[in-house]
Amino acid sequence: MLTRYVEAASSYAQDIDGLITLITVLVGFWFLVAQAVLFGLIFRFRAKQGVKAQYISGEEKSQKRWVTIPHMLVLVCDVFIIVGAVRVWTDVKQTLPPADHTVRIVSQQWAWTFIQPGPDGKLDTEDDIKTIDELHVKEGATYHFQLLSRDVLHSFSVPAFRLKQDAVPGRLITGWFKPTRPGAYDIQCAEICGIGHGIMAARLFVETPEEHQKWMEKLSPVARAPTPQAEAEQENTPPAEGASAGAGAE
Ligand code: CUA
Hints:
Oligomer: single chain
Radius of gyration: 28 Å
Bound molecules: dinuclear copper ion
CATH topology of the largest domain: Immunoglobulin-like
Number of helices: 5
Shape: elongated
Largest sheet: 5 strands, mixed
């Protein structure tokens, strides 16, 4: 239902949408029933000439049923909501599926810094790629994120992923996501963090593996310098017309 308004671009987006739909349908059903009963009774027992109003204490069995039966039925619906919610919560927040990549997300007043491994696949090495207010990820890969804050509380919110996670100063918070749909999406800070909170936004780019590889080659400081292996390959292959030196040539 929600996908009509905000595209679903992560593996668990559908589960969260399904949960919201379930809650909307169950709560909506009881809302309509309650309103129908209320207005039905108002109409049925409206003021009539010559009829005295009744005083009803609600203590008789037949009267109590109006409360106890719906109460039980609503509780049964609650069980469905609770079971659904716990299942989704466990999947999204409690479990950490094995990661293909890790990205470090540093929040501060009022910008996002994204640090991800370069071609060596390891963080904290010299080929790390650092971007500001722009996160590039690969479709179909599972990412772990390490969320940090340099100053105050922030919240990393990606509506298209149905992901929201607070950043707390002094804590490193780990979570995961798996992008499933290429495109450009919004990232927004979702925790009041000072006068620039409203403009603490970023862009998320979900790319196909080929696009992502090109982006990485363009940005990684090490990928641009040819590795010994790449140099050996270059010597063996005749230079293509118009090709520039180094990796990243099309
Ligand atoms: Cu950072 Cu609001």
